[in-house]
Amino acid sequence: MDTRNLDLGLLVTLEALLAEGNVTRAARRLNLSQPALSARLARLRDALGDPLLIPAQRGMVLTQRAVELQQPLHEALERVRKVVANGAPSDPATMQATLVIAASDYVQYALLTRFSVALRTEAPRVRIAWRALDVLALATQLERGEVDLALASPDHAPAAMRQRQLYCEGYAVIARKGHPAVQGYVSLDVFCTLEHVVVSPQGGGFSGPADAALEAVGRRRTVALSTSGFLIVPEVVSRSDMIALIPRRVADGWSDRLQVLELPLTIPGFTIASVWHDRTTNHPAQRWLRERLTMLAAEG
Questions:
Q1: Which of 66, 139, 184, 299 could form an SS bridge with 52, CB 3.0 to 4.6 Å?
Q2: Tens of pLDDT along 146-184?
Q3: CA of 163: how far to CAs of 86, 130, 154, 166, in Å?
Q4: Distance linking the first and last C-alpha atoms of the chain
Q5: Strands 97-103 and 53-56, how do they pair?
Q6: Quick check: 175 and 237 in contact, CB under 8 A?
Q7: pLDDT in tens, 50-95
Q8: Cα–Cα distance between 90 and 298 in angstroms, integer?
Q9: What is the Cα–Cα distance from 80 to 297, expressed in whole angstroms?
Q10: Cα of 94 vs its chain's centroid, Å
């Protein structure tokens, strides 16, 4: 038996012939002319070394070899159809996938925690791996498949990648409860006088979005501590008289332990987008997961 000349089209033809047991009906099922189907049957007979269908008193009957092929061939082709199906999985509860997501600690806290918890109920066979966001390496990571999805500012998205806005974020000021200079409200003068904690994702920076806004009104603040991530900032503030400007979603998570205050001046917020390589755009599982993440982000 020489299967080198068997292609997917011939296997689909064989499936129809075995199911119908009749050349005319199989041709109708595949929308082919009878001569065209007869030609394919001849190729199948040569490749498999078996007549497959033989004349009988009433039409044609399957050979023993054909009977043995029928069920496993149908099951194999059904698996192929599922693999190449273009569309979201019909049942996320049975979907199997591993998704690698790159994000900052802030996005992991603000969105990915809820996303991962939701998937344990909705798609329990999906595994999620979180990675720290490396803006400089992101394009290469997405191209190589080391990262499936990145959650970042659109400004940090590589130009060749696809992206979709998830949500807009604003800032809040946090201070410890019982702070001697802050009692439910922070004025611009107090904001500039107190020592601040700032976040510098690349490490070592002592300025942030507040500084440009302050400079525009001729003011400055005092920065005493720079950290590389947002999540440690509320803990530091809760133990000191320093204050901080952090994303609203993080601040709200500490509202029972810290004072969460309105800004004393206008400071622009930022946008978070999902970013992915075009090679995964039509992947059924990844497309469903991106849509679910988008829906969750819209809930706030």
A1: 66
A2: 999 999 999 999 988 999 999 999 999 999 999 999 999
A3: 20, 19, 8, 9
A4: 61
A5: unpaired
A6: yes
A7: 999 998 877 889 999 999 999 999 999 988 887 776 555 568 888 8
A8: 23
A9: 34
A10: 17
Burial class of residue 42 in the structure, from the number of CB atoms within 10 Å of its CB (0-12 exposed, 13-18 middle, 19+ buried): exposed
Is the CB of residue 150 less than 8 Å from the CB of residue 274?
yes
Looking up tokens 């949500």, which residue turns up? 167
Give me the residue label for tokens 């696809």: 162
Q: Which amino acid is at 92?
A: P
Question: Residue by residue, what is the 3-state secondary structure of the chain?
Answer: CCCCCCCHHHHHHHHHHHHHCCHHHHHHHHCCCHHHHHHHHHHHHHHHCCCCEEEECCEEEECHHHHHHHHHHHHHHHHHHHHHCCCCCCCHHHCCEEEEEEECHHHHHHHHHHHHHHHHHHCCCEEEEEEECCHHHHHHHHHHCCCCEEEECHHHCCCCCEEEEEEEECEEEEEECCCCCCCCCCCHHHHHHCEEEEECCCCCCCCCHHHHHHHHCCCCCEEEEEECCCCCHHHHHHCCCCEEEEEHHHHHCCCCCEEEECCCCCCCCEEEEEEECHHHCCCHHHHHHHHHHHHHHHCC
- Using CA atoms, how far apart are residues 171 and 283, in angstroms rounded to an integer? 35
Q: Which amino acid, one-letter code, is at 290?
A: R
Show the tokens assigned to 111. 């969105």
Domains of the chain: 8-84 (1.10.10.10), 92-168+271-298 (3.40.190.10), 171-268 (3.40.190.10)
Q: Which amino acid is at 173?
A: V
169, 249 in Cβ contact below 8 A?
yes
**% the chain with pLDDT above 70:** 97
Token readout for 88 is 């979201």
Q: Distance between CA atoms of 194 and 173, rounded to whole angstroms?
A: 12
